[in-house]
Amino acid sequence: MHRPSRYAPDTLSRAPHWSDRAACRDAEDLAIFFPEDFPRGLVLLITREAKAVCARCPVIEECLQAALERPEPAGVWGGLDKDERRAFRRRQQRRARRQRARKRRGGGDGAAQTVTAA
User: Fold this and answer.
1) Which candidate among 9, 16, 44, 91 keeps its CA 20 to 30 Å from the CA of 111?
2) Mean pLDDT per 10-residue segment, the chain (118 residues)
3) 24-63 b/e (C-beta count within 10 Å ≥ 16 → b)
């Protein structure tokens, strides 16, 4: 267990982290979350098994967000494999670009704009 600070006593426990409640902590074999390491024919089956664990996880959103922020290069995180996360990230980036473009054009959020004469 890591100390929160080098000045904190060893007996001080760390703050709870979302990963402490993750369903994968109770999984028998953590290797299923990295299906790329298995023979090619088993990848889909192993991925499905890992996603089933994720489906019952109480912190799936936090896990996915953390994997997107890093960005995590491999494995199943937050119920998505690496290709699904890459596509998800691209959709988020496209959506953000469209919103920025809309704001630059003066469209904003679709609400009526008032124009004041100077």
Assistant:
1) 91
2) 60 80 91 90 92 95 93 92 94 94 76 49
3) beeeeeeebbebeeeeeeeeeebbebbbebbeebebbebb
